[in-house]
Design a protein that fits this description.
With 59 residues, this protein is an all-alpha fold. The protein is 88% helix and 0% strand. Helix 1 runs antiparallel to helix 2. The protein is elongated and about 50 Å long.
Length: 59
């Protein structure tokens, strides 16, 4: 399996857990905000990881 597919599967699972926990603790508005922040962070992490992998590849 490709790295991207595994990363997306793990990220979706993590986002579902974050949404569920924050929904139980603080409510719907807080759950959307925290899940949105986590989504942006995971997207940036994917971009940085792909950049690091590509930069190490030989020309």
């Amino acid at each position: 399996m490709s790295f991207t597919f595994l990363y997306v599967a793990f990220t979706l699972l993590a986002l579902l857990i974050i949404f569920g926990v924050s929904l139980k603790i603080k409510g719907l508005k807080f759950a959307f905000i925290t899940t949105g922040i986590a989504f942006v962070f995971s997207a940036l992490l994917l971009i940085v990881t792909i950049y690091a992998i590509v930069s190490v590849m030989p020309n």
